[in-house]
Specification:
globular, mainly alpha, 110 residues, 11% strand
């Protein structure tokens, strides 16, 4: 995965990196641990599987839905997104992508 260190993306203070179309934009001080890289690799797989643009449309739609359910708590809404739940749940498993089922973000359950 290509990594671009910069001060512009991601916007805001809570996040240190953002994956856009399989390119990771990271703030200069963001530690890119193996877990972070695996988390972002899971997102890249999700994007490819959904043909990129639909991924972003679904991601934003789900975030808005979760935001309404969480009464404006944007960080909790973010953590509740199915794409994020899968990526966080399996970030520490370096072999996860080798065994991941298609559309696992919706098949995985807590």
């Amino acid at each position: 995965m290509k990594v671009i260190r910069n001060t512009l993306l991601p916007l805001g203070r809570k996040f240190g990196a953002i994956n856009l179309f399989g390119v990771l934009f990271a703030k200069p001080d963001m530690p890119l641990t193996p877990e972070v890289m695996n988390h972002e690799a899971i997102h890249t797989r999700q994007m490819r599987e959904l043909l990129y643009i639909p991924f972003y449309m679904l991601y934003v739609a789900e975030w808005l839905y979760r935001l309404a359910r969480r009464r404006g708590d944007s960080y909790r809404a973010y953590l509740d997104i199915s794409f994020e739940r899968e990526a966080y749940r399996h970030a520490a498993d370096p072999g996860y992508l080798a065994t991941r089922r298609h559309f696992a973000q919706w098949l995985d359950s807590d």
